[in-house]
Amino acid sequence: MLWLVKRKRRLRQGRGPNESYFFVMNELAKRVLQWQGFHASEKEASAGYLQTIGELEEQIEELLHPDKTRPPPPPHRHGLPDERHGSTHKFSITQSVLLDDGAVEARTHTFYLIVACYANGAVGEIYIRKAMDRENFAAIFDCWCLMVSLGLQCGMPLGKVIEKFWAWDFEPKGATSNREIAFCTSPVDYIVKYLDLRYNQGRHYKQMLGE
Description:
Elements: H1 2-14, H2 17-35, H3 47-64, E1 85-98, E2 104-117, E3 123-130, H4 135-153, H5 158-165, E4 174-176, E5 183-184, H6 187-199, H7 203-209
Antiparallel strand pairs: 1-2, 1-4, 2-3, 4-5
């Protein structure tokens, strides 16, 4: 669509906004019709040509002023192939627990994060397993991983997942076995920090540091 951007720049130099809009729409509609097999000249516009202009105007109006009362269109899910690239990452969180007698006990929780990727390296699926796990704990994490995986496969950016779940606070939390992530406020916080460093070029880390 580079031709359209250049066209708009040239039009803005010598025409008003309404006239520029008309010429841009005129050019865009003609390109669409050419792809569909029409060959409309500049002077003779067919009924299909005028109808295409109207449809494009409605689409642009919808983009500029979306109707928030209507739900968005259903997304298209891009599932992972049966054979997928990925990695398994082992990490642990050491939490300090205050006992009834006033003593402090260090408890270490070990996790296994499984990340599955598309052929281009983009994350499409995550799973987490905990050593010696409780059934209810595993079920909650399975639900969360499934929700995130479906979102990624339907086009949700990985950066948005990282942003929304960054610094979620619940136990277990504490020091980690990863030198790059010295402390986390929850297993979910650790996971999104790891995904940011490993698959998002640390963009959210840099944003938090103001870089």
